[in-house]
Amino acid sequence: MRTTRLRSVALGVVAAVAFGSLAACGGSSDDSDGVTITVEGWRPGDKKPTIDAVKAQAKAFNKENPDITVKPVEWQWNAQTFPAQLAGGTLPSSFRVPFTDTKGLVERNQVADVDAEIRALPYFDKLNPNVLAAAQGTDGKVYGLPSDVYANALHYNRDLFTKAGLDPDKPPTTWEDLRAAAKQIHDRTGATGYAEMTASNTGGWILTTLTYALGGRMQTQDGDKFTATVDNPQTEEALQMLKDMRWSEKSFSGNTSYDWNSINQAFAAGKVAMYISGSDVYNGLVTTSAIDPKSYGLTAVPLGDSPDAGALGGGSVNVVSAKATKAEAKAAVAWADYFRIRKYTDESAAVADAKTQTAAEQPVGTPTFPIFDEASYTTYQEWVKDYVNVPLEQMTGYTSKMFDLSLVAEPPSQTQAVYGALDPVVQKVLSDENADVGSLLKDADASVQQILDKG
């Protein structure tokens, strides 16, 4: 699932619906002068500088590729609207989907086969195999270009830490630290010490993050058989912790309707001191939520003592309409390469992108989990160091650990449906002081197993 991920990252169940005439309705076409495609440009709510930056990139791309016309449009992957857009053919020609949804779209023939175009990219052999796997079908072919790889992280408000008498340069490193900080912040400032997303499948996403951090898992796999393991000690521990923070310690928000956008707004407004989301959500906080950069802090999600404890990781895959012509598909891959990836592999592209983003007052240098390796990431940071405008010194709690993190992939089967089944569990714990965590997990495990059995 994604922060920024589509991050942004709104989340939801991708229904197995017919694809429809996507190319025709999405605005992609061939003509005698070349190829014209519509592409995902900016999110709803993004400000004019963000929109202008995307348009500037499209103009530069069109100049470099005179036979291709790229038309960016407002779009964001959203749980509630994506199935209808897919069925109605109103999607852009080129768009991003979460890692967890790519294989389902491939199986239903709802995205184009762009294997040849992806393999022709000069850096194809350098892609992390574990990242590339998210874009591959069971046939081994590649159906999109991975990007925006992330590990979930803890975002915190430095101003609230200071007002509460806490050191903003020493964010929590254990769950005990986090709970103590959340209570102290609430008691001394009145702000919510800690909050979580709970709606549109994000509740299940973050509950899974906590489970992974404590060493648990939500599914097991034996060949083609998937078994629900939602009812496990780590998930029970996580829910009991949330329950205690909500009802005993009074430090946890009782809001049961937070999703990706609304929790970002609450955090940027200083109403929430800490929450978990994709490591790159700072971009959205700046471009959509108008956060004060001085107040922002980023650190790693605390991990438990279990050897299986790890950080939930994910990302996006840039895919193409199944109805696109070969010329349109080739153009869409070229745009995804230009707009999302090339800056990490080519110094001139990195500098040009950084200049464009800086001129448009967009974030440059936000930590993302690289799709290549640490050396490539370090090299990219060196290329753009003169243009970095994000407070990296306030993000060292994450950047100093990110290459040592044990990344755990999201549940592999029916991911979004599983998350959706867990949303009510989290909401119940936060809204009912007498909620029975054990009973809730037992029922949720049975519900998830039914989802997995249906396939």
Keyword list:
single chain, 455 residues, alpha+beta, D-Maltodextrin-Binding Protein, domain 2, 2 domains, 6-stranded mixed sheet, 3-stranded mixed sheet, 18 helices, globular, disordered N terminus
Structure description:
The protein is of the alpha+beta class. The protein folds into 2 domains: 6-150 and 317-399, Periplasmic binding protein-like II (D-Maltodextrin-Binding Protein, domain 2, 3-Layer(aba) Sandwich), CATH 3.40.190; 152-312 and 411-454, D-Maltodextrin-Binding Protein, domain 2. Helices cover 42% and strands 15% of the residues. The protein contains 18 helices and 12 strands. It has helices at 22-26, 48-64, 82-88, 99-107, 115-119, 129-132, 158-163, 175-189, 202-214, 233-248, 260-268, 282-287, 326-341, 347-359, 374-383, 396-399, 415-431, 437-454, and strands at residues 6-7, 29-31, 34-42, 68-74, 94-98, 145-157, 219-222, 225-228, 274-278, 296-300, 311-320, 407-409. The strands form 3 sheets. Strands 5, 6, 9, 10, 11 and 12 form a 6-stranded mixed β-sheet that branches. Strands 2-3-4 form a 3-stranded mixed β-sheet. Helix 2 (48-64) packs antiparallel against helix 14 (347-359), helix 9 crosses helix 10 and helix 9 (202-214) packs across helix 17 (415-431). The protein is globular, with a radius of gyration of 21 Å.
